[in-house]
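DM from R.C. (forwarded with permission)

"hey, sorry to bug you on a friday — could you get me a structure for this? deadline for the figure draft is monday and I only need the backbone to look sensible"
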Amino acid sequence: MLLLAAAFLVAFVLLLYMVSPLISPKPLALPGAHVVVTGGSSGIGKCIAIECYKQGAFITLVARNEDKLLQAKKEIEKHSINDKQVVLCISVDVSQDYNQVENVIKQAQEKLGPVDMLVNCAGMSVSGKFEDLEVSTFERLISINYLGSVYPSRAVITTMKERRVGRIVFVSSQAGQLGLFGFTAYSASKFAIKGLAEALQMEVKPYNVYITVAYPPDTDTPGFAEENRTKPLETRLISETTSVCKPEQVAKQIVKDAIQGNFNSSIGSDGYMLSALTCGMAPVTSITEGLQQVVTMGLFRTIALFYLGSFDSIVRRCMMQREKSEIANKTA
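My reply, with the result:
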């Protein structure tokens, strides 16, 4: 009886793997496609633009710093695969004025055609204890990390629905999957992206438009270097429990998942575990993805408890060290 049940389970899983490609999104062809990347002048955004350019896409780079944009354009153009490809640069702050962002997208579409894929990569991180952060910091991060993704997406979504083709990528963070010490402002702004993406996917899926939310870990970028300058000790020690990824590695995975229409994009075993643990009511791209999440949830939750326990231990040790230091200073 046990063998029969096991055989049935194996047959059921194999059937799911065979059926899954039939109901999954059709991959987006990048050759000749128009890809818009916000925050594309450096870091993950620039590497995503390079990866798409290598596959034959036309690129529109959007960022604030015009000098950095022009430098990024030169780097990207080295990877062309034909002489028809174009890299267009537009300098604008995507978090300030929706009308300005909408006009920029219109300009890009007039020159390179309708947007086939939008990658929302503009963002920043500020860390610090909740009571030490200025209220303006919370407002700034919501503006840049959340509204800086809402505005470009709002500007392209109507055309994508009319054409019944498109991909929108939101670059969140692993700190947008679980809250961590020192990231009260940053995590909240990145958590907001997940809620936006889940609701938007429900609206646009009937129009063959698919949303991808990327959750990169700590990545070796200029933004990460800037973040480390003011990172609290507890936050830094928690970050050191995982390795720092290369932006090229992260970019390849994000582009791959976006092309396939996968809702979640994660990097490495830690990233996969986090995505499975925090999937909640998030949509799945295939039956097999949903089955994997159901099967692995129990095991990953057990592992996660050890992770969280180690994080708590780090925070407690830092607090005890500070208390000892304060006592020593008082008695000196």
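R.C.: lifesaver. Residues 16-22 have pLDDT under 50 and may be disordered.
me: no worries. The chain has one domain: 27-303.
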